[in-house]
Amino acid sequence: MKAALMYGPNDIRIEETEKPKCPQDGLIIKIMSVGLCGSDIRNLTTDSRKGNYPFIYGHEIVGYVDETGPDQTKYKVGDRLFLFPGTYCMECDECISGHSENCSNKEVSSLAGTGGFAQYVAVKGEKIRRGGIYEIPEDVSFDAASLGEPLTSVFACLENVKVGYPDTLVIIGAGPIGCFMAQLAKFRGAQKVIMLDLNDSRLEMAKKFGVDITVNSSKEDPIEAVKKLTDGKGADKVISATPVNATQTQSIHMVKKGGLVVFFGGVPKGSMTELDCNLIHYNNIWIKGHFGASYSQSKRAFQLAISPTFPTEKFITHILPLDKINEGIKLTRTGEAIKVVLHPWDE
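^ that's the sequence the OP posted. Answer follows.
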């Protein structure tokens, strides 16, 4: 099969490699669409595997069942499936406490994490039994269904922090995740969405997704801009959706007294964020980290992604063959693309 193999930072090669073998109690998915995620780009452009290469990334996977093992009875060849990458044991302390996204059973949580930048991927029987595989209706495109995964964590975040009427919400980062956040915030009833970024073209595209006001942080002080736009009070909620420590530092200066700040974007491992703790203390600011989603949230996010009310066509700006994955990375990093979807079978 054809696959995009990573051999090191920024070294992604399209090669022929062995098709995975079908597990006795599992199946093989023929991948029809796979989204290019910001975390994929971060992994592909850094030494994410610490020298353990080659490796196939890609986790926004949708396709057909191509083959089933003799002991697998739930799905049949031809079924159209969405493969949620998270898998939870529902037995560890984290799962039982309601935070299954932090499942501590590493063997279970890694069952379906990656391997999507290829023409086929194997799914173990244990993944099928644990859950997180959803059937795609015949009238829904694979491209639309692939948005179910990136939408999941955004859906969970906004639900967990109760974004809704009459919130003024600041989103830092006008990438794909920031645009998903803006659209969902409007669905949930937020009254004003302010988007901050350094890239004018991204900010312009963000206006398509319910953003009311954009601020280019390279041209004006973002903290002063937010204060001015909120009559000096600050926003009800601020979400830092970038992989940058500086935006986390700025975020607590943009929120109102008693407001909520969410650190959504992962920053470089080992890096430290400088915070004004007196400001946090005396202004009663709450800070929440967000990662992942529960099974319930993943299923509802998938249902939203494939519903006619969700504007899939506005989010997917580029559809490319897998061979052009490096072009997709460049388009995303420069801000020309909101969401890139790759087709492993296109030439």
